[in-house]
Design goal:
Elements (H helix, E strand, L loop, with lengths): L17 H19 L5 H8 L3 H29 L2 H19 L4 H29 L2 H33 L2 H21 L14 H12 L2 H31 L4 H29 L1 H19 L6 H27 L6 H25 L4 H21 L7
Helix pairs in contact: 1-5, 1-6, 1-7, 3-5, 3-13, 4-5, 4-7, 5-6, 5-13, 6-10, 6-12, 9-12, 9-13, 9-14, 10-11, 10-12, 11-12, 11-14, 13-14
Length: 401
């Protein structure tokens, strides 16, 4: 058996490796999986912990806040000290948080566990993209990010189905034990399959002033901020859909809990297909062209949703169009945003993740505050987000992307 050789930037694979891509996709998907997998178990969790389903929403809020803020620290630290130990350390912290959740006897303990989970798993989400940037360039980077983005979009779709089935068979605590086991398996695979990818001669100094300066520089660089804002508006809209889907589909269209989970799962195939189409189309037309086409397609879906309020089939078709456009933009826009910043891939990936989570939180808050029906509020915020995405991506001259 051949010995496993740690990869470095100088030893980056000349072509895409299937196992490596699956590893990066799994690292990216773990956070998204942990976010939604517990939703079907909320009623049972509320009964066991002596709280209400409404109060359990605090576990989601704590997760999102810790996840968003943690990324801003992980990215620059990985640019200074490398990816390997931050990924392994993040997985270890995630396991600890999962165990805390599994043995929680109160809502406050569960919130602590979810916060610890998020602080750990934010590292794998950020660094999966940074590692891809370490290893690949150009078309190969776009193809690698396509699979990573598909995995991140697929996990929220399948996780409620998995969590609901597991909760019914073994109870909600088993969900957290499963997450812990998955993290351990990923840590073993990562440690044996992939070495340090951020070479020592590419590392940058880290200090509060240097970190702040890096983020200010990225925010002021149109090569980063234009595609990053576009991707964040679209991904933020996707998370808004997941948050509002129970009210839209169950209260509005009469879906059952199983029907809701199946609808989520069905969205994965659209995103999966678009994610694999994107780099192939970009090979002929260019990344910028296809990314802009993705935004335009997603916007067409958002406009069509206005006609789907009272017809579930029209709603499903419009959402399919939106997801198709999102699946085209996400990997290409991410690749365009990260491509010029090889020496700062960790910070750039972290800031991109923060912008995405921030846009998701803002979209959900604005939709909830609008004096409209749930459906109308969703359509309004979705349409505005996609118009902003199109303006942001079209404004700067990115013909060289």
């Amino acid at each position: 058996m051949k010995a496993v050789v740690a990869l470095s930037r100088a030893e980056a694979p000349a072509r895409l490796d299937g196992l490596l891509l699956l590893l990066l996709a799994a690292l990216a998907a773990l956070g998204a999986l942990a976010t939604n997998i517990i939703l079907p178990s909320f009623p049972r969790m509320a009964g066991d912990l002596g709280t209400s389903v409404k109060d359990l929403s605090a576990t989601l809020a704590s997760f999102f806040i810790a996840f968003a803020l943690g990324q801003l620290l992980v990215g620059p630290l990985s640019d200074r000290f490398g990816r390997r130990w931050l990924v392994l350390g993040g997985l270890a912290v995630f396991v600890v948080g999962s165990v805390i959740c599994a043995v929680s006897g109160s809502l406050s303990q569960l919130i602590v566990g979810r916060t610890v989970q998020a602080l750990g798993v934010c590292a794998t989400s950020v660094l999966s993209r940074a590692i891809a940037r370490d290893l690949f360039d150009g078309e190969a980077l776009a193809r690698a990010l396509a699979l990573i983005m598909v995995a991140m979009a697929a996990a929220p779709g399948f996780s409620p189905l998995l969590g609901g089935a597991l909760g019914e068979l073994t109870g909600w605590r088993a969900t957290f034990w499963l997450l812990a086991l998955l993290a351990v398996a990923l840590a073993v695979l990562y440690a044996t399959r992939l070495g340090e990818t951020h070479a020592a001669n590419r590392r940058s100094a880290v200090s509060p002033v240097a970190v702040a300066g890096t983020y200010v520089q990225l925010l002021g660089d149109r090569r980063f901020i234009a595609p990053a804002v576009s991707v964040s508006c679209v991904i933020g809209s996707l998370y808004m859909f997941f948050a509002m889907a129970p009210a839209i589909l169950m209260a509005g269209f009469g879906f059952s809990a199983l029907g809701l989970a199946l609808f989520f799962a069905s969205t994965v195939f659209v995103v999966f297909g678009a994610g694999f189409l994107a780099p192939r189309w970009a090979r002929r037309k260019g990344q910028t062209y296809v990314a802009r086409a993705g935004i335009a397609i997603a916007l067409a879906g958002a406009v069509a949703l206005w006609a789907g309020q009272h017809n579930v089939y029209a709603f499903a078709v419009a959402m399919t169009v939106f997801l198709l456009g999102m699946g085209l933009l996400n990997p290409l826009g991410t690749a365009i945003a990260l491509q010029p910043f090889g020496h700062q891939a960790g910070a750039a990936s972290a800031l991109l993740g923060f912008l995405q989570m921030g846009c998701a939180a803002l979209s959900i808050a604005v939709a909830a505050a609008l004096p409209l029906t749930v459906y109308a509020a969703f359509c309004t915020v979705l349409t505005v987000n996609l118009v902003c995405a199109l303006i942001a991506f079209t404004g700067p001259d990115m013909r060289g992307a």
